[in-house]
Amino acid sequence: MDAFRRLAANTRGRDLAVGDIHGHFARLQACLDAVGFDPAVDRLFSVGDLVDRGPQSPQVLQWLAKPWFHAVQGNHETLAINHLHGGRVDLDTYRAAGGGWFLDLPAEAQAPFVEAFVKLPVALQVETAEGPIGLLHADSPFSDWARITKALDDPAVREVCQWSRRRLKEGDTTAVRGLRALLVGHTPVLAVKVLGNVWHLDTGGWSNGCFSLLDLASLTVISPRPGA
Ligand SMILES: [Mn+2]
Questions:
Q1: Could you tell me whether strands 198-200 and 43-46 are parallel, antiparallel, or unpaired per DSSP bridges?
Q2: Is the pLDDT of residue 11 over 60?
Q3: Which end of the chain has the least Cβ crowding within 10 Å, N or C?
Q4: Which residues are catalytic?
Q5: Top-tier CATH class for 9-195+202-221
Q6: pLDDT greater than 70 at residue 228
Q7: pLDDT, the chain, mean
Q8: Would you say 206 and 26 are in contact if contact means Cβ atoms under 8 Å apart?
Q9: Which pLDDT band holds residue 227 (cuts at 50, 70, 90)?
Q10: Which segments of the protein form a coiled coil according to its record (predicted)?
């Protein structure tokens, strides 16, 4: 499967994006309901890390089958792929990071998840009226989107896209050229944080925080806090 995918603009409804989900699909659905998400015309974009930690990881297959749900591959999806494909995965670390539900499945039950995860792009581009918006799980390896999307077969580039926390650590505000905005997750933040044109969306909806839904057309966070 191609590691880079482009999607045309949504001319019928809203496009929303969300940070790491980590097996909390019921909470996510409640959040979508609260903002009147309409699956007939709206689309939801995910920065990956769909599974591990939360109680509903197995539901990921139903979510990935929804025509309005589009995700990039996070490092947790990569862990599952590498585990089944015989790659080097530290099992204690993986289990501590919430992978027990997957590790405890027999290999034939792991396979459908890995089949779905390998189909996910590492980088996704969504057109909007104001310009293209990119999605990666963790961080941008370069400050030029075209260069990133051409280099995704390089394991070192994928590693940065899916695992790095450099931009947040350094407070790097360099914009990623060629994009209106780049959306990432992976590193929890208390509130949506923008550095340059890079939006960090993982506000801990899977933990003690809330899911933040970003409206792609207006680049505004529209989700209320749960109960608010
Ligand atoms: Mn992650």
A1: unpaired
A2: yes
A3: C
A4: 76
A5: alpha beta
A6: no
A7: 95
A8: no
A9: very low
A10: none
- State in Å: Cα 189 to ligand 1 middle: 13
Q: Is the pLDDT of residue 57 over 60?
A: yes
Question: What pTM value is reported for the model?
Answer: 0.96
Would you state the structure tokens that stand for residue 193, as one six-digit string?
A: 């944080």
151-170: average pLDDT: 97
Question: Which pLDDT tens digit goes with each residue over 82-100?
Answer: 999 988 889 999 999 999 9
Q: How far is the CA of 77 from the centre of ligand 1 (A)?
A: 9
Residue 163 CA to ligand 1 center (angstroms) comes to 6
| 206 Cα to the center of ligand 1, angstroms | 12
3-class DSSP string for the chain:
CCCEEEECCCCCCCEEEECCCCCCHHHHHHHHHHCCCCCCCCEEEECCCCCCCCCCHHHHHHHHCCCCEEECCCHHHHHHHHHHCCCCCCHHHHHHHHHHHHHCCCHHHHHHHHHHHHCCCCEEEECCCCCCEEECCCCCCCCEHHHHHHCCCCHHHHHHHHHCCHHHHHCCCCCCECCCEEEECCCCCCCCEEECCEEECCCCCCCCCCCCCEECCCCEECCCCCCC
Instruction: State both tokens at 50.
Output: 């769909």
146 Cα: distance to centroid of ligand 1 (angstroms):
23
Tokens read off for 33: 């309901």
